[in-house]
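Internal QA ticket QA-208
Title: Verify multi-chain structure generation after dependency bump
Assignee: T.L.

Test input:
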Amino acid sequence: MSYIVMARKWRPRNFETLVGQEHVVRTLKNAIQANRISHAYLFTGPRGVGKTTTARLLAKVANCLSPVEGEPCNHCVRCEEIQAGSATDVIEIDAASNGLVDDARELREKVRYAPVSCRYKVIVIDEVHMMSNAAFNALLKTLEEPPAHTIFILATTESHKVPATIISRCQRFDFRRIPEREITERLAVMAAAEGVSIQEEALHVIARGAEGSLRDAQSLFDQIISFSGTEVKTEDVVTVLGLVDTQVFIALVDAVTARKATEVLRIVDTLVNSGADLRLFMKEWVEYWRQLVIARVAGRQQGNLEHLPSNVAEAVERQSLVFSLEELLNVVKLAAATDDELRRTQHPRLLLELLLLQLCSANRLVSFETLWGELQAMEARVAKMPAAVQSQADQEGPEETPPVAQPACDGEENAASAVAGEPALVVDSLEELDAQSYVETVREIWPAMVQTIGQKNRRVQALLRDVVITAAEEGWVELTCASAYHLTGLEKEEARKLIETVFEGQLGKQTRLQLKHEEKSAPLPEEGLPRGADRQKEFEDISHKEPLVQKTLEMFGGQIIDILQKPSAGGNK
Amino acid sequence: MPFSGMAGQTQAVAFLRRSLQHGRAAHAYLFTGPEGVGKRTAALSLAQALNCPSPQAGDACGVCLACRKIQEAIHPDVHWIVPDGQNIKIEQIREHMQREAFLKPLEGRTKFFGIDPAEALTTEAANSLLKLLEEPPQDVVVVLLSNQPFLLLETVRSRCQEVRFHPLARSVLASWLGQRLGCSAAEAETWAMLSGGRPAEALRLADAEHQELRGRVLGMLQHFPQEDWAVLANRWEEERADLGEALEYMLTWYRDLLVLAHHGDPELVWNRDQADMLRQAVAKEGADSLFAKCRLLVDTMDALKKNMNIQLLLENVFMQLGRKA
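Actual output:
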């Protein structure tokens, strides 16, 4: 029962079968052919991309009796010795277990003697990052000027742990992650040789799961063959890898788009009960959204979705168009944050549900984060408000307060009004289209409203007789009166309150009034400085009655000393 | 205990058994999954199956001398490497593994090494395993167990075949609990859900002491806030030891309310035994506010692990939980 795992069995025996490291192979082959083998090499790169393999190949080709164009012959005595690991002159050291200074000293001793049978004495130091500092330093001299016929090969995944003095004495080769395509091709060759029939798609899934490491891919492949024998289906791969069927993501994104919280929760429940690993799920969920981002940015033409099965590619394309790029990026960001949290929690399911519900209930998926940011910024401003208002009032008199006091009043009424303010913050094109029809709606119900107001207050009804609705949006209505007299009357707290209440009753929404009078009779305050004493007087009256000003006075107990008009700032205060 | 005696984990068990049957047992496995779902039991079963003189269909008999010795942890070829103090140190690996691995098995067929938990390996120890994991001597099987596999070196993970252990499905765990404890179906399901599908955790939660704590926390939430936030914060600060658990109960409560507020299926509720209370409470609050509270609790539990000022944290929590929606 001495079974040898595939990664070992399929370790390349010549440079040709080494996958994905052409830049390294070419340099080494040329060096060998030109007989310019350096005395020290450093191989770095991620796990499972071929560092140790290349080191062994180099040892073999350097000692091979009849190398062919930089490739070992694999038939001569030396090649066979080295392959079997019995060559006395090829020493492989595991620095992680033998990385102390004494080991380095011992190595120095060994290097001193000429090779017994081979041409070169090859010392492969694997996992070299685990050598102690003292050990590294003990090797410095040897590494710089080793005896002739010695080749040092250092291999590591963490080159940053190797001292610069060591690196500078070696020829350094950076191994790359292996592209998915090359992994797939290699796996197909292995499958054929092992007599395993495997679906094309299954190979892709394995390759993707390996994240650029051929050893990972081979381990997975091995595992899958153990699981399903000689007939491998994509479902088996998905099961062994604990992956989630892509259809689940498609369904989930559809449910989120449709705001079907119930459906979302049900999917999560099924997922958990089917034994899916939620941490893994999250990773793939982020990956799926990444596909959507790619589809959104580049579209299908560029062949970005080529590696997906056609039905998935269609779904990705369809779903990517539902969102804006900003939305997609926001979702990816949120999901990545949750992915991070999932690692620490005892309740991964709960966090996942929170994330999905957040996505479902976000007003517009697009701007949820932006909106949230704005809201918080606003809350922060409101929180700071009283202090700011106070100090300003001390210095410049209360007239400066209205522009800043405006949000203070919003915040005052409690969080609800801040939330109600939301739509105003994010008026998007859709709502602008609606605005026109909204005015019409308000105009339609206007006569009935005037009636209702009349039942409560005749005077106000009279004042409203010549009023025209000039503009309206959700939560905001602009009324234009015939004259300044009417305006003054309507500006009174009592009248304004009454009208606003009736609006709220009719429209089912808190509504803010904006009053002005027709421009013919007198220019609007924001249009310039007041002309003459009359205008000033009138303006002061209005200002005194302005609820904002009154509220400010009431809150801070100040008094109005002077009234100035800001030429640029709006508002008739 | 042979594989056949394991609760749940059908997939992992099937995979291991098939590998044994096909004679394709790998030399390095990584068993991952939450605490208390059966990783250790499965590793033990694997050790038995690898050494039992008369295995059937990839499973040990469980009654022979070898099987019993392994069960009792006195088999000379089965080694468990556990933390010495906080960590598993490189000396332990050198002493118990690297020398031992190169010797022939004494009684059985396979030298088995279980490293439990693998994330306890120091960096040095983990690195010293690399060569052994990649190209071990014949007849050696190493199993690493971990509930936080992402803490392991990538180089270690890449050398192992990962076998995933999952939380048990609600129905499976609930019926198991029902048999074992003789409790009502609603209670069993509640514990199954609250434990996140982990049998050991569910048993712990069903304990009287934890029940009392949960009752107290849920009682407090049902009539929240009866007391001032400062008083509550003070009281819970004194019960520091139970705080983490209490926060979890609070979180599950608000999570359930959130699910109901979104018109989720009542089947999805975790606090199954509190169904009526939840139904009453959900009318009082909007989904947005519930969501904010869940988020608050998640963040608080996170902060608690980071050694924050507990008093401040608690004041913040109770102040915000008490806020009217």
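Spot checks passed. The CA atoms of residues 84 and 111 of chain A lie 22 Å apart.
Status: verified.
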